[in-house]
Design a protein that fits this description.
This protein has 472 residues and is α/β, with parallel strands linked by helices. Among the domains are: 114 residues, Translation factors (Elongation Factor Tu (Ef-tu), domain 3, Beta Barrel); 202 residues. Helix content is 47%, strand content 16%. It has a six-stranded antiparallel beta sheet. Helix 4 packs parallel to helix 10 and helix 6 packs across helix 7. The two termini are 29 Å apart.
């Protein structure tokens, strides 16, 4: 396991078999993030709309109605969060799990603000009458038994969201954070539901609205239980095994696994999976990695993994034949449902993983469109699969070129020195129809944001930019 695999061996191992059929793309692309947001906010306003249908609750002024909207919509947002993060096939196939996780994070920040302001908004009008009276009311909100579950949910929610926002700075393992995040979410949902049906003014008159909240809470908690217990059981019936794990460069591993049995497994280049190598499908020690190969290599799939944390820095501890369980595939960073005059691939560091998967799929499909790759790292010895990429650029069947970008290049270097700025983007994508190309961008979050901003300044249409930031 300690021997470094040669570039020639990697090329040979990943070359498509002669009898492999070309990949066909027939699925419909998932919702855009903007469309997902619109649908999401329409859904979370449904409870307030149901409340308006009540014959017993009258209009009580604009401020009271505003607080009702924020309270009911905020609570609905919290419960819908479970479906965005639960990896439910029926949801993720429409939204894309990466879109769902992005919305999950953004909504989480909004929820923190709404929950923080909730008790203050309730007593704010009383400050206009008497500040001392309002303070007494605020204290009662946190101490009265009738509102105690709301106080507990409020406190847990603040802690829960702060942990999510600053998890990278906490001295907590990825696995420990995930378990505590799930348990905290369930506790908050149950406590908040009890609070809503206990003192919510709509539920006092319409019992059916209370049952609506109970049903939504039950569905939300069930989604998390499904993720933690039912999905692992399904994946236990579809095990993979480790074939090899070798250094592909000074910073990256090249992990290859294959199906350990006769079962159906499909994916598209650019997608990712959560990998569990603990030997226990119910263990929460799983990590998301992008697939670096395309479907023609099945039953084997491979990953380019940068050594950044405790787990990824010790992948050489994996043993050949060791069992691995996969949750996936997930993601919309694919060629699915898209039409373009050309394909632009922009990879930074380990972001080359899904980019290589897409490039290999284009090669195996016999795609004749112009394909351009910009691949960046700090140093040349961090570059991976350069022999395979060079073979593609010299192929008579592909219109493909690569441009390397290094911040610390060697003395003899023909690529671009520095970062992926407008100069290199303008140079590589100088065609008159570049606004009709699709741009696939993957790498560290800082790099992705910077390049995306530059491309917008170049007036590349937003819908042409498909990006994936490494890490959740």
């Amino acid at each position: 396991m300690n021997r470094s695999i040669t570039k020639e061996e990697l090329v040979k191992a990943q070359s498509p078999k002669p009898n492999c059929a070309h990949v066909t793309i027939t699925k419909t692309a998932p919702l855009s993030f903007r469309a997902l947001m619109v649908i999401y906010f329409c859904i979370v306003l449904v409870p307030y709309g149901l409340g308006l249908a009540s014959q017993h609750v009258s209009y009580r002024g604009w401020y009271t109605e505003l607080v009702s909207i924020l309270s009911m919509a905020g609570f609905a947002m919290m419960l819908v969060q479970f479906f965005l993060s639960g990896r439910l096939e029926g949801v993720s196939s429409k939204t894309g799990v990466d879109n769902g996780m992005l919305l999950h994070r953004k909504v989480g920040e909004m929820l923190a603000l709404l929950f923080l302001l909730h008790p203050l908004l309730i007593v704010l009008p009383r400050f206009w009458l008497s500040s001392s009276f309002a303070v007494d009311n605020l204290v009662l909100l946190f101490t009265e038994p009738l509102t105690s579950t709301g106080f507990y949910a409020w406190s847990l929610m603040i802690v829960w969201v702060l942990m999510a926002m600053f998890k990278d700075k906490l001295n907590m393992s990825y696995e420990g954070w995930r378990v505590s995040h799930g348990i905290g979410a369930i506790a908050i949902a149950i406590l908040a539901t009890d609070h809503v049906i206990t003192i919510g003014r709509h539920g006092h008159y319409d019992e059916w609205l209370d049952w609506f909240w109970i049903a939504l809470c039950t569905a939300a908690v069930s989604a998390l239980v499904y993720t933690y217990f039912i999905r692992p059981r399904q994946f236990s019936k579809k095990p993979f095994k480790i074939v090899s794990c070798e250094k592909a460069g000074i910073s990256d591993w090249y992990l290859t696994i294959e199906k350990d049995g006769d079962f159906e497994f499909e994916f598209e280049a650019g997608q990712f999976v959560w990998i569990n190598t603990s030997g226990n499908p119910y263990d929460r020690s799983e990590h998301p990695f992008s697939i670096a190969t395309c479907p023609t290599t099945l039953p084997r799939i491979s990953f380019i993994i940068r050594a950044l944390g405790d787990y990824t820095s010790n992948l050489d501890r994996l043993k050949v034949g060791q069992t691995a369980y996969l949750d996936g595939p997930h993601g919309i960073f694919t060629l699915t449902g898209r039409k373009a005059n050309g394909i632009a691939l922009i990879a930074g560091g380990a972001g080359v993983g899904p980019i290589m998967g897409i490039l290999r799929q284009l090669r195996d499909m016999g795609d004749t469109r112009p394909i351009r790759l910009i691949y960046g790292n700090q140093s040349f010895d961090q570059m991976v699969l350069q022999d395979e990429i060079k073979a593609m650029s010299e192929s008579n069947t592909m219109d493909f070129e690569q441009m390397l970008v290094l911040t610390q290049p060697p003395e003899i270097f023909k690529g671009h020195k520095g970062v992926m700025d407008r100069t290199i983007l303008e140079k590589v994508f100088c065609t008159t129809d570049r606004n009709e190309w699709d741009y696939y961008l993957c790498g560290p979050e800082v790099m992705v944001k910077a390049v995306e901003k530059t491309m917008k300044n170049m007036e590349i249409p937003q819908h042409r930019i498909i990006f994936e930031k490494l890490g959740f």
